[in-house]
Amino acid sequence: MLATIQTGIFSQQVLYDTLLADCAQTPGAIVTFTGLVRDFNADGPIEGMSLEHYPGMTEQALIRLATQAINRFSLQNAGIVHRVGKLANHEQIVWVGTAASHRKAAFDAAGYMMDTLKSSVPLWKKEFQHGGAHWVEAKSSDAQAALSWLDGSES
Predict the structure, then answer these.
(1) Among 66, 70, 80, 79, which Cα is nearest to 101's?
(2) Is the Cβ–Cβ distance between 80 and 113 less than 8 Å?
């Protein structure tokens, strides 16, 4: 299992290779997701963002999330990498990978991890826009996505 907070860019290939190498047997499916910093929000264009975290607590939350996904979806392996610090538009911000015997479990687990990450991991985003900066408030749609995994409506 891989669960990391970092400031620097990551190699999707290295993360994929690590995810696969740490499987006890060859999985039938690997699903990865890489999120990028968008260059806009609901109010128009942005000029990047900055992410802050709570050291120690954030890493533990990522480990807990990956462990939950492994157990819930019977994964062979899972990984999460999230960047913090100042990020420019279009830069990588998050990577999630899942390895499972079957594709449905791998896809579902990746969706679960991304949907749950936004509401369960202590990360705070500040967007730069129009020469200023503002903290990004949690979206009700993110909370709803995470809750859908609890009530089974995610399918």
Answers:
(1) 70
(2) yes
Q: Return the DSSP state at 24.
A: S
C-alpha–C-alpha distance, residues 67 and 109, integer Å: 11
Residue 14, classified by CB atoms within 10 Å of its CB into exposed (0-12), middle (13-18) or buried (19+), is: exposed
Q: SS3 for 25?
A: coil
Regions of the chain with pLDDT less than 70: 152-155
CA dist., res. 141 & res. 143, Å (int): 5
The one-letter amino acid code at 28 reads G
For position 144, what pLDDT does the model report? 86
pTM above 0.85, yes or no: yes
Q: Which domains does the chain have, with CATH numbers?
A: 2-150 (3.90.1170.40)
Contact predicate 133/126, CB 8 Å: yes
The H-or-E segment that residue 115 falls in is: helix 103-120
Contact residues for 60 (Cβ-Cβ < 8 A; gap 6+): none
DSSP 3-state assignment of 8? coil
